[in-house]
């Protein structure tokens, strides 16, 4: 309009600006009865939370750049790991008692290079295809290991035969509904025997961007975060599966990484891209272990003496309490 009473062309004729979503401090999505509306409002609330978090992060970054060298040190984020409840069995590297125990335990001949590992890998009775392939791939990871398929033969009969044939360790892969779900590791001839729950098994063909087939070189072994006396025992059991002298020319690494009492196994090959850059290729297989029990001696389900048993109701009372 020419008299100025109406809106000027080009002003206020477009779509209104989107309003910023503001939720009251006491807002609770669970109070919304309609399921679709509740889900929609929850997504909007999460989106607003992400925007506020990103804006705060950018603001702090600008402040640190403005302060330069005078900027305060970055705050260490709180995690379950760094808030871990102290375990009285945590091993001190300078503890003479621990050093004496390790020098006289069942694994001492291996660490003194008096014995060479020889591993027997077997399965539960009548294994299916996935378990069979997993055992075959595990045998390519552990040098000097042999796969035998078990058919109705009890472990109490297998163990004496293993000892007679100079095997140093026995690995039994159990399965449920065609999926590997358990691992029994028994050190021969005098034990101990550890029982693990197995999960997240991935064969080589199921791993993305995997490398070529592993070679026959003896791999390096990395053991991470086994800090308690129990953790040391489990770590020494895994170390005793591999020959003590790795062949570095093969560039292969077997890693047992303990985090929150879950043991993650990965098998990699590292590649030198330049003098300063190194890349890694996962070769597989991969799996996750959770310790269920540690038994003295070889496998004995009826009369075995247990050093440690995982009791969920008694031990899992705190998320910050770990045993390995």
Automatic annotation (TrEMBL):
Positions with biased composition (Basic and acidic residues): 63-72
Region (Disordered): 1-22, 48-75
PROSITE patterns listed in its UniProt record: BRIX (PS50833)
Entry's Gene Ontology BP terms: maturation of 5.8S rRNA; maturation of LSU-rRNA
One annotated Gene Ontology cellular component of this protein: preribosome, large subunit precursor
Signal peptide start and end residues: none
Record has Ligase as a keyword: no
The keyword rRNA processing is assigned to this record: yes
Subcellular location: Nucleus, Nucleolus
Domain Brix: 117-300
SMART domains recorded: Brix (SM00879)
GO molecular function: rRNA primary transcript binding
Ranges of Gly residues composition bias in the record: 1-13
Taxonomy, superkingdom: Eukaryota
Keywords: Ribosome biogenesis, rRNA processing
Role: May be required for ribosome biogenesis.
UniProt name for this protein: Ribosome production factor 1
């Amino acid at each position: 309009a020419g008299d100025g009473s109406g809106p000027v062309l080009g002003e206020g004729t477009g779509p209104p600006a989107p309003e910023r979503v503001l939720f009251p401090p006491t807002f609770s999505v669970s109070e919304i009865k309609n399921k679709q509306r509740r889900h929609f409002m929850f997504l909007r609330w999460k989106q607003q939370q992400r925007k506020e978090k990103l804006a705060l992060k950018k603001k702090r970054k600008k402040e640190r750049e403005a302060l330069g060298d005078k900027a305060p040190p970055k705050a260490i984020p709180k995690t379950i790991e760094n808030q871990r409840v102290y375990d009285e069995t945590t091993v001190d590297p300078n503890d003479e008692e621990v050093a004496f125990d390790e020098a006289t335990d069942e694994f001492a001949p291996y660490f003194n290079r008096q014995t060479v590992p020889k591993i027997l890998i077997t399965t539960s009775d009548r294994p299916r295809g996935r378990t069979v392939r997993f055992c075959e791939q595990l045998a390519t990871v552990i040098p000097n290991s042999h796969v035998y398929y078990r058919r109705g033969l009890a472990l109490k009969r297998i163990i004496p035969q293993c000892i007679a044939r100079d095997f140093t360790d026995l690995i039994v892969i159990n399965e449920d509904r065609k999926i590997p779900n358990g691992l029994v590791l028994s050190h021969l001839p005098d034990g101990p025997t550890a029982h693990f729950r197995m999960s997240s098994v991935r064969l080589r063909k199921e791993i993305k961007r995997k490398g070529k087939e592993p070679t026959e070189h003896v791999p390096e072994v990395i053991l991470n975060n086994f800090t308690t006396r129990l953790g040391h025992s489990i770590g020494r059991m895994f170390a005793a599966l591999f020959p003590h002298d790795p062949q570095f020319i093969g560039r292969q690494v077997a890693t047992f990484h303990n985090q929150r009492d879950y043991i993650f196994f990965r098998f990699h090959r590292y590649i030198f891209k330049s003098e300063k850059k190194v890349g890694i290729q996962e070769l597989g297989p991969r799996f996750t272990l959770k310790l269920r029990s540690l038994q003295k001696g070889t496998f004995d389900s009826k009369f075995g003496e247990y050093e440690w048993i995982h009791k969920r109701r008694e031990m899992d009372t705190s998320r910050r309490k770990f045993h390995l």
